[in-house]
Amino acid sequence: MKTVQDYQRHAAECDDLAKKAVTPEHRDMISQMAETWRMLAEQRRAKLVRRVGPNPAPSDKGD
């Protein structure tokens, strides 16, 4: 299972790629991918909060 930081890193990578996209279509597609990664990060964070409380450990692999 990926960590919240993994998902956030993927989102940031997509944001960087979107800035370099040649066409608006590619930029939009990559931006949507970044948003999906952010949504997954938030879902992971919420799952950890339910499981271990509001301050999960930095290595949040606890599944």
Number of domain units: 1
> Main β-sheet, in a few words?
none
Shape: elongated
Helix-residue proportion: over 70%
Intertermini distance: 7 Å
Explained architecture:
The chain is mainly alpha-helical and 63 residues long. The protein has one domain (4-52). Helices cover 73% and strands 0% of the residues. It has two helices and no strands. The protein has helices at 4-20, 24-52. Helix 1 runs antiparallel to helix 2 (24-52). The longest helix is centred in the middle third of the chain and has 29 residues, at 24-52. It is elongated and about 45 Å long. The mean pLDDT is 89.
Please describe the structure with a list of short key phrases separated by commas or semicolons.
63 residues, mainly alpha
Précis, in short:
The chain has 63 residues and is mainly alpha-helical. It is 73% helix and 0% strand.
Topology of helices and strands:
Blueprint: H1 4-20, H2 24-52
Helix pairs in contact: 1-2
